[in-house]
């Protein structure tokens, strides 16, 4: 698996080698993974390819401004690649200009005339030949003797934490899309399952909110191709099943599925790892007359009421709907979310419904569709999973921002967000959450394939459960 980094440091050795090493050490103390060419290029490898890989695999591109880096063709090449890949660039001003004394120390035999020629070309200072993109960005000022290093470092760390989940996803999908392109767009590298769902949500968020860094054309093509390939395979399988079976009973479809598993075992393992999911979709489509319809877009989450007599559903049409078990709608759609409704759950007494959505909010409703209080706000990205505590007094939520949050039913945050430790350099979305029957523990499933157990104060109980090879779904949504 490709190793990903939080930051790549681009610098000029003559002016900033020691400073770059100091920045690297300080960031690593804060548990950031830093790509730095002084340590990260193995012997006997292609130097430029390793540099390019480092830029591709890092979420942030830190450019240390100094006369040497600004006038270096190698650093300029690094900047150009970062721009091409739509990297988040953070310039750090280290040296504004060098003195004649410094130049003379580096050039013991240099003459006054050579120094004047050097100055005339702007090689002694940072601004004249600066790349236009670096020039227009806000810099973090680290000039020796002018700015307080600790304050500037705090500013840098704040920038690295800002929108970190979004930027990390940009890197994750960039690396995957580049691999897909380099392997001649082989379908085995396309996104599938929950990973595809996360990518589609990320792309929609990027485009709807015009987030920066923007998705590259290659990332967009990769995600769209993944979506199209999934649909194509699904339609092909539906066509095969319908043409062979005609209109069949559920039992007949199930037996045919078993036959397909036996006959296509080797092909499935090597070529179609998603076939089981597609067969389930195809089987559902073959039972089309029995589907409950009412939403105008895909349904992301469903749940039974505690007495088993009602069903609640959340949809991409931004609504929540209530049904009886015969498929009849109860009342009008619950409206209020400003994006997809990704998770719904009943309270233990069946009198309230909680929902989480693409608009980053959690909402509490009565069963007539009236909003109770104000939306719960705090998550920095879409809310993927929500659940009530057994006594109905608390709500837990899991989000694309990689955190779990505990709330009272008035929307007040209880304690601090539960934060997962980064896995392989990334903070993965929390896919599902649930309370234990006694209400004293919370279990979460994450896109890193792990399950985690917490107490209600946000302390991790033991080590994460490892075993899944894809994202974990800890609850029932």
* Spatial separation of the terminal alpha carbons: 29 Å
Shape: elongated
Tally of discrete structural domains: 3
Number of helices, counting only DSSP H or I runs of 4 residues or more: 15
| Low-confidence runs | 40-45, 240-290, 422-426, 470-477
What structural class do you assign from the helix and strand content?
A: alpha+beta
CATH homologous superfamily designation of the largest domain? YVTN repeat-like/Quinoprotein amine dehydrogenase
Number of strands: 19
Can you give the helix content as a percent range? 25-40%
- Our Rg estimate from Cα atoms comes to 27 Å
Strand order, largest beta sheet: 2-1-3-4-5
Name of the CATH architecture of the largest domain: 7 Propeller
Specify the CATH class of the largest domain: Mainly Beta
Largest sheet, strands/sense/barrel: 5 strands, parallel
Report the mean per-residue pLDDT as an integer: 81
Strand content: 15-25%
In CATH, the topology of the largest domain is named: Methylamine Dehydrogenase, Chain H
Description of the molecule:
- The chain starts with a strand and ends in a 22-residue tail after the last strand.
- Mean pLDDT is 81; it is low at 40-45, 240-290, 422-426 and 470-477.
- With 477 residues, the chain is α+β, with helices and mostly antiparallel strands.
- The chain has 3 domains: 5-162, 3-Layer(aba) Sandwich (Rossmann fold); 187-288, no CATH class; 292-455, Methylamine Dehydrogenase, Chain H (7 Propeller), CATH 2.130.10.10.
- The protein is elongated and about 90 Å long.
- It is built from 15 helices and 19 strands.
- Helix 10 crosses helix 12 (217-245), helix 11 crosses helix 12 (217-245) and helix 13 (250-263) packs antiparallel against helix 15.
């Amino acid at each position: 698996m490709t190793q990903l980094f939080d930051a790549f440091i681009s610098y000029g050795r003559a002016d900033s080698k020691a400073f770059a090493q100091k920045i690297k050490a300080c960031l690593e103390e804060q548990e950031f993974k830093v790509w730095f060419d002084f340590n990260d290029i193995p012997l006997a490898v292609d130097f430029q390819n390793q540099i390019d890989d480092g830029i591709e695999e890092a979420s942030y591109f830190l450019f240390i401004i100094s006369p040497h880096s600004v006038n270096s063709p190698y650093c300029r090449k690094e900047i150009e690649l970062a721009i091409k890949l739509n990297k988040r660039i953070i310039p750090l001003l280290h040296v504004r200009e060098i003195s004649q004394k410094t130049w003379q120390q580096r050039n013991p035999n240099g003459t006054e005339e050579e120094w004047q020629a050097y100055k005339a070309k702007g090689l002694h200072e940072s601004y004249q030949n600066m790349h236009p993109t670096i020039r227009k960005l806000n810099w973090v000022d680290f000039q020796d003797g002018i700015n307080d290093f600790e304050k500037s470092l705090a500013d840098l760390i704040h920038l690295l934490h800002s929108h970190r989940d979004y930027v990390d996803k940009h890197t994750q999908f960039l690396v995957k899309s580049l691999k897909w392109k380099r392997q001649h767009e082989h379908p085995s590298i396309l996104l599938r399952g929950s990973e595809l769902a996360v990518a589609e949500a990320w792309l929609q968020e990027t485009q709807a909110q015009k987030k920066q860094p923007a998705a590259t054309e290659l990332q967009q093509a990769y995600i769209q191709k993944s979506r199209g390939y999934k649909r194509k395979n699904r339609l092909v399988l539906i066509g095969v099943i319908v043409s062979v079976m005609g209109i069949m009973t559920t039992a007949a479809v199930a037996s045919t599925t078993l036959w397909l598993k036996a006959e296509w075992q080797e092909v499935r393992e090597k070529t179609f790892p998603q076939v089981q999911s597609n067969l389930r979709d195809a089987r559902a489509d073959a039972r089309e007359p029995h589907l409950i319809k009412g939403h105008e877009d895909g349904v992301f989450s469903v749940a039974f009421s505690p007495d088993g007599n009602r069903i609640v559903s959340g949809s991409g049409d931004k609504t929540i709907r209530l049904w009886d078990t015969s498929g009849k709608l109860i009342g009008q759609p619950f409206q209020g979310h400003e994006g997809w409704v990704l998770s719904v759950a009943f309270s233990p007494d069946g009198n309230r419904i909680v929902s989480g959505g693409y608009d980053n909010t959690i909402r509490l409703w009565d069963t007539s569709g009236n909003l109770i209080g104000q939306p719960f706000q705090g998550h920095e990205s879409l809310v993927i999973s929500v659940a009530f505590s057994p006594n109905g007094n608390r709500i837990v939520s899991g989000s694309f921002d990689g955190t779990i949050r505990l709330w009272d039913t008035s929307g007040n945050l209880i304690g601090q967000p539960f934060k997962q430790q980064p896995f392989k350099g990334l903070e993965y979305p929390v896919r599902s959450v649930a309370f234990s029957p006694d209400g004293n523990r919370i279990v979460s499933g994450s896109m890193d394939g792990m399950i985690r157990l917490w107490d209600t104060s946000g302390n991790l109980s033991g080590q994460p459960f490892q075993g899944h090879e894809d994202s974990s779904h800890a609850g029932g949504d």
